[in-house]
Amino acid sequence: MAKSKSEFLSFRRSSGREVAANFSGGNISSDGGILLLREIDNKLSLTKQVANILPDNRRQSSVVHDMLTMLRQRVFGLAAGYEDLNDHDTLRNDIAIQTSVNSDKSLASSPTLCRFENSMPKELLFDMHKIFIQQFIDSYKLPPKELILDFDATDTILHGNQERKFYHGYYHNYCFLPLHVFCDKQLLASYQRPSDQDGAKHSWAILALLVKAFRKEWGKGKLCLNLWFLKPE
Questions:
Q1: Measuring CA to CA, which residue among 74, 174, 160 is closest to residue 117?
Q2: Which of 21, 99, 108, 141 is the most buried (most CB within 10 A)?
Q3: Is 229 within 8 Å of 151 (Cβ atoms)?
Q4: Are residues 143 and 112 part of one domain?
Q5: What's the predicted TM-score (pTM) here?
Q6: Number of domains present in the structure of the chain
Q7: Which domain does 157 fall in, by range?
Q8: 3 in any annotated domain
């Protein structure tokens, strides 16, 4: 519907263009970049693959938000810098966030997302990492001659009374100490840990699982893999 002239604030014309302003911006978001994440995820299908292995023990007749939508809401929110679940009490009505998860309605609240996260069994993490590793393997058209794996223990600073928080002398703060494994720019593993342990703990176990997966896919014929292990600082 065309708007009447009275709804606009008119300015002097510029090179033949009419210049006007109005204050009926409607739903506005500062997170337009999240739509790029949506396109990337649609191409890679990572969240869809993960959602397919998530257990859903809810009473289906009462379900409002499906698993894939909640997963994308949480993952895209984290990618946009919203770490706290409380942020979603506002974000659930953000039109860009809604569009990124293919919804036009209010998304899950922070209590719903909290129950969603805490309902996942620990054993599920292994199956999720299988998806990341397979995505990495599929990114190669030919078996690589060499892989350089970067094992990186990184501090995650804590600001509250989170369970199992500890003071880390090296980082001079209370933190978690997750172990991340990268190959070039691709994430292969991410393991959350408390900080009261050695930064290299669990590294060899994760390395063994990665080598097993690589050999299963690429270990046919005369393939030779040289794996460089970069010990965490």
A1: 74
A2: 108
A3: yes
A4: no
A5: 0.78
A6: 2
A7: 124-230
A8: no
